[in-house]
Amino acid sequence: MTNTEILAAFAANLKYEQIPTEVVRRTEDLFLDWFGAALAGRGARPVESIQKLALDLGPQSGPCEILISRRSTSPLFAAMVNAAASHFAEQDDLHNSSVLHPATVVFPAAWAVAQALGRSGKEFIAASVAGYEVGIRVGEFLGRSHYKIFHTTGTVGTLAAAAAVGSLLRLDEVQMLHAFGSAGTQAAGLWEFLRDAADSKQLHTAKAASNGLLAAYLAADGFTGAQDILEGVKGMGAGMSAQTDPQKLVDRLGERWALVETSFKFHASCRHTHPAADALLDVLRREKLSPGDIETVVTHVHQAAIDVLGPVTDPKTIHQAKFSMGTVLALAAEYGHAGVHEFDAHYREQRIAQFRDKVSMVLDPEVDTAYPARWIGKVTVQTKDGETFTGRIDDPKGDPGNTLSRAELEHKTMTLGLYGHAAAEEEIQHAIASVWSLTDYPVVPRLLPEVSLESHHG
Amino acid sequence: MTNTEILAAFAANLKYEQIPTEVVRRTEDLFLDWFGAALAGRGARPVESIQKLALDLGPQSGPCEILISRRSTSPLFAAMVNAAASHFAEQDDLHNSSVLHPATVVFPAAWAVAQALGRSGKEFIAASVAGYEVGIRVGEFLGRSHYKIFHTTGTVGTLAAAAAVGSLLRLDEVQMLHAFGSAGTQAAGLWEFLRDAADSKQLHTAKAASNGLLAAYLAADGFTGAQDILEGVKGMGAGMSAQTDPQKLVDRLGERWALVETSFKFHASCRHTHPAADALLDVLRREKLSPGDIETVVTHVHQAAIDVLGPVTDPKTIHQAKFSMGTVLALAAEYGHAGVHEFDAHYREQRIAQFRDKVSMVLDPEVDTAYPARWIGKVTVQTKDGETFTGRIDDPKGDPGNTLSRAELEHKTMTLGLYGHAAAEEEIQHAIASVWSLTDYPVVPRLLPEVSLESHHG
């Protein structure tokens, strides 16, 4: 069997009963975290644009909920809109070593299809785990050279979504392999948009979730795909990576649960900023410094941070500011947390811009070598008094070694839900309760009641 | 201005009045040719699968016709299904130097949107020309190294469709550039499926047409894309080609009409087989040989022919047979033409398989150097009598230098329309008349009446 066949068979055969309890619980955590991220996308122009087109070009009703509007549509378009929404606020989860944001592609597709097919909470959990395990391994397989040009969450996300949806469609091993083929040959997403702060990031997740869903539906209907879309001589590895790592594709399947390695985002910014932000917070707390005391901050980073954040020197939008190392460190220094509210209220302020310009990035061999398996944060802080302090964080807040508690996740979800005015407090409470008891549902519920938003927030 | 900006501005500003009459006429020819190719896709399993999903996941009604079923839906799904249908029978057109099949991605998107917006025949023509001119130049820009791994019609087709739809949406230069950005970052399609004779070819065109359409609609709604998706350091050229040719992007815009360089397909097979098939027919006619006289045929080909056709040694399906050099030459030798009926009736016959096994491919430096600008056909035929003949064709039938007449195009269209039982003879006649008078329509018509197929062919 090829590695791709082994991986497809794993996804096709994974049952809820095989999944350790702590993995199930963590899946619930990640799902709740995703729900908050999706709600926070409400009102964002690119997200609303995608929703408008989904409702213009797709069905105006259906069995699946669009979280930001409480509208309903077909699974394809619910997946599309919820995926776009959940990748806007830079609050969705990230798996370190694959540099994949799994939640924003797996859950929109799986949740829509579970609703469309009336699957149980347990089946939804198993499908989501399949999506995470597949996506993470494919991301690790394609590696750093892929991520240099391609937005892994867009490309690999297509396969992750296909695996999750394929599980819910109860594809057999052969069909799942076809689904992988049809997903991989649709895989797309280039980083070029980042320099222009263009809206492609949400398009990538929208299309990854919906294209992966389409691939699995096609496979269920007998549509065939390439048998080795990952390692074949004209496959993804050959065309979209300079150095693949085939062993990663099947790395300890069923023993290593890669899902639990996924990090929650504490700051509402690009994950590449988090290690340095936390290292700076460490220095400020330890040395009892305030932002005004600081002359310069040198962040010691991995190459990908320079690649992704380097072009952003003078952020023009909130979204771009989330990719500005200096802005993120300025907000963290000032408010202890660079959250959605901190960005909205302060990212343009003179004070923040001044601090931003004190921050630089330098490539650090130790950090770069450890990346992407570990995201180490290191800063050197020079004070106006001429003192020099160094800070270091081995597990940024939200990483598996420093994860968020259920109370912290509930707080984050409530903050994000209210931030986008997507739901009332009691509705969010109700959704939280639904997620914590998801495995009890013989048929997955709606997370939010299908009501006109105007009656709640008009 | 960057090359991409110049190209986007050209697409945004192209008006019907600027297009020479012979280019308009040729566009009508290509559109009719596409219509026949689309009808021929009716009943093909992969095409019907895509239609089934389009109607399950998309709207069940709308302003746009699905040619193979006479159903109506939204422009997104009409584009998707018509694109899938028109790339099945291997009868759709090809532009040589870009190795792009423009019709199958440009016309489905443009026709659907022209119907949705009620645009005139002239606007539809101008939009289609924009799609061809953009797509061909982007294909030439990405070049041979791109085509080695990526199915150019899938990847570049996304931009071609976006340009055509953008024209119909009357995007300005800035919006068109955003549409290009959103199209390019969705561009996908890997050749890996070919080894397995999988169904991805139709998925590629379906997604190119619909994704390009989506990109243009998003741009019309203010959604932004990368400003240099083609030449940017993390754009298509950087990620998906080993050697680009930037000058090709803006090659004599408005002077060179690349559309008229497009070839019609005479044989119903992969275009890489056509030069050798015609060269063989040349030998057979000249020397008055019959297939039974032949011991071996050596075809002297370009490398891409070996790449695409080489893996197909024992075709298992009609579609795969269209990528078998030996099968195509066998059918051409036996019947003078490897058309849809010849494939259906004979591709599996012992006699055809025996001839097939007499055919080999060798790389020819002259042919390879001329490719892809020119597709030269050269064969060496050895007879059972021990004689050796060589055949050569500089312009395979259907090439601009040896194009099909309107009478031949009408005949091809009728053959393909009846082949798929997609329409009655008088309906096809009516559609042909509509295409020849397209520029007279203030609002584009339907090509086929919206009636239940059962009443015609039940």
Automatic annotation (TrEMBL), chains A, B:
<protein>
    <submittedName>
        <fullName>MmgE/PrpD family protein</fullName>
    </submittedName>
</protein>
<dbReference type="InterPro" id="IPR045337">
    <property type="entry name" value="MmgE_PrpD_C"/>
</dbReference>
<dbReference type="Pfam" id="PF19305">
    <property type="entry name" value="MmgE_PrpD_C"/>
</dbReference>
<dbReference type="InterPro" id="IPR045336">
    <property type="entry name" value="MmgE_PrpD_N"/>
</dbReference>
<dbReference type="InterPro" id="IPR042188">
    <property type="entry name" value="MmgE/PrpD_sf_2"/>
</dbReference>
<dbReference type="InterPro" id="IPR005656">
    <property type="entry name" value="MmgE_PrpD"/>
</dbReference>
<dbReference type="Pfam" id="PF03972">
    <property type="entry name" value="MmgE_PrpD_N"/>
</dbReference>
<feature type="domain" description="MmgE/PrpD C-terminal">
    <location>
        <begin position="267"/>
        <end position="437"/>
    </location>
</feature>
<dbReference type="InterPro" id="IPR042183">
    <property type="entry name" value="MmgE/PrpD_sf_1"/>
</dbReference>
<feature type="domain" description="MmgE/PrpD N-terminal">
    <location>
        <begin position="6"/>
        <end position="247"/>
    </location>
</feature>
<comment type="similarity">
    <text>Belongs to the PrpD family.</text>
</comment>
<dbReference type="InterPro" id="IPR036148">
    <property type="entry name" value="MmgE/PrpD_sf"/>
</dbReference>
<dbReference type="GO" id="GO:0016829">
    <property type="term" value="F:lyase activity"/>
</dbReference>
